[in-house]
Structures are given as C-alpha cells and as structure tokens.
Amino acid sequence: EVQLVESGGDFVQPGGSLRLSCATSGFPFTEYEMNWVRQAPGQGLEWVLNISSSGTSMNSADSVKGRFTISRDNAQKSLYLHMNNLRGEDTAIYYCTRSSLMAGGVFDVWGQGTMVTVSS
Amino acid sequence: EIVMTQSPATLSASPGEGVTLSCRASQSVYSNLAWYQQKPGQAPRLLIYGASMRATGIPARFSGSGSGTEFTLTISSLQSEDSAIYYCQQYSSWRRFGQGTKVEI
Q1: Contacts of A50 in chain B (CB under 8 A)
Q2: Which of A105, A112, B15, B51 could form a disulfide with B33 if both were Cys (CB 3.0 to 4.6 A apart)?
Q3: Is the previous residue joined to B59 through a cis bond, with omega within 30 degrees of 0?
Q4: B81: which DSSP letter?
C-alpha cells in the first residue's frame, strides 16, 4: 500500500523555524517528484514546493521563497520541509504529496497532513 | 500567473441528481487540469487529470471535460458520500488551485 506519513507539525512563534518530515512506503520513492501542499484553516489548497526525483532540482511558490526549502533522502525514502522565519500566514495543514508519473504536476497520493501553527 | 475560478461556491442537490461544477482559467492551460475531492477532516483525493482522465479507483459517475480555459466536473447520480469540496488545479504553469466548490447533498 502506498503511504505518505507526515510528522513534525507544532506550535511555533513568529520568526521561528521548523522541520517537517514525510516518511514514504509502498512505491519506488526514487522515481517520483515530491511536493508540499498546504491548506490554511478553512481555506483552499496552495502548492508550496517540489523537488525532482533525484533531488537536484527544486521549485517554490513566491509566498515561501527564501524562507522554506525542500529536501529528500532517497536512501531513507523520506521528504523534508525546512521552514524558517515563519509568519502567521504560514499557519496551515502541510500535506506531503506525490507527483503522478502519468501527468507531472498532478498530485496522485496525499499524506494525512501535519498542522503548523505560527502564533505568539 | 494563472488564476483559477470555480463556480458555484456552493451547490445543493438531492441524491440521484446530476450536477456540474465549473472551473475557468485566466489563460489557456490546454488539458493540464485536475480535479480533487476533499471530505471534512480528510486529505484531498485525486479524481480527474488531463481534464478528462479518471484516476485509479474513481467511480464512473465522475467525469471531466473541457480544454483551454473552460472545464467542467460532472457527477451523475449523486450519492451521499459525494458531499465534499471539489477543487480544480492547473499544472500547465506551475501548480495552482481554484478556491473550491462545496457540494451539499
């Protein structure tokens, strides 16, 4: 069974840092581009960052550029989100997602999400 | 930046009815359009990609159509478990979602 399991969500003060993790199983992790997608409370979905299967290419949304980075450990089949200089508007559920091999840019598998709250 | 606009914001229908949800792109996204279903307290689930291709395991009552800037998701014969928010997403130029349509049954 294909699984994505996020962890690391927490309550953090503005300006703080946090690292989210996503443990994967059930598919050849090294073949897939991976992403983080977030959802603020009661709001819609926002793609945040992605990383190529090899880990050599990353892209990010303007809203997090310069503050968030993405990385992966292919040996551990894990994805990470490194969040710095956090702001209140970063409060959201963060989902780890897999990009479809059939259509790049389509998120065919989602984790259950981990909640990040930024507040003083 | 491509903006995705969904309509209506909320739709109410009865079991067995058919409904159509709309998604409009501010510029052409060709057929690079996906639909997702999100039930309360759950992660989104992929329904449709390539504007009209059903994802694995998605019931045939869900169908997508359109290309360019105008797209629709049709749910024929609504079932109670179809109550959810439905999001469209373009992947022609980066990835951007619409604001969602809530379907109440």
Answers
A1: 95
A2: B51
A3: no
A4: G
Q: Å from A109 to nearest chain B CA?
A: 7
Q: Contacts of residue B49 in chain A, CB cutoff 8 Å? A: 100, 102-103, 106, 108
Chain B residues touching residue A45 (CB < 8 angstroms): 36, 44, 87, 89, 97, 100
Looking at B1-105, which runs of residues are DSSP E strands? 4-7, 10-12, 19-25, 33-38, 45-49, 53-54, 62-67, 70-75, 84-90, 96-97, 101-104
Q: How far apart (Å, rounded) are the C-alpha atoms in residues B89 and B91?
A: 7
- Summarize pLDDT for A42-53 with one digit per residue, the tens: 999 999 999 999
Express each pLDDT in A55-81 by its tens digit: 999 999 999 999 999 999 999 999 999
Q: How many CB pairs below 8 Å do chains A and B form together?
A: 59
